[in-house]
């Protein structure tokens, strides 16, 4: 169940219900009811808010065996920020290749 997964992840991060609710911008009571399996069908919007705070993807909340659960959410945020600033995939790839080249020059 999603509630069990949320509770486990929250405890692994040593977060209280209040901390998770505040950081995700959701109601503490809703998280509590989800973790107690009173609420069993959270919206995707809700999951999109709590997943990054828990350091996982929405898919991994829905499927604990999802192979993307180890994605570093800071990298995801960085990539989104680059995209929002107008950097294209090609420019991003060129930057990575340049850094590899520069590293090999040292």
From TrEMBL:
Which GO molecular function, any one, fits this protein according to its record? protein dimerization activity
Q: What range(s) does the Sin domain occupy?
A: 62-100
Q: Which UniProt keywords apply?
A: DNA-binding
**Domain HTH cro/C1-type, chain residue ranges per copy:** 6-61
Q: Name one GO cellular component term.
A: cytosol
Which superkingdom heads the taxonomic lineage of this protein's source? Bacteria
Record's SMART domains? HTH_XRE
User: InterPro entries of this UniProt entry?
Assistant: Cro/C1-type_HTH, Lambda_DNA-bd_dom_sf, SinR/SinI_dimer_dom, SinR/SinI_dimer_dom_sf, TransReg_Diox_bact_type
Under PANTHER family, the record lists: HTH-TYPE TRANSCRIPTIONAL REGULATOR, HTH-TYPE TRANSCRIPTIONAL REGULATOR SINR
Q: In its UniProt entry, what is this protein called?
A: Transcriptional regulator
Q: Which organism is it from?
A: Jeotgalibacillus proteolyticus
Its ancestry begins with: Bacteria, Bacillati, Bacillota, Bacilli, Bacillales
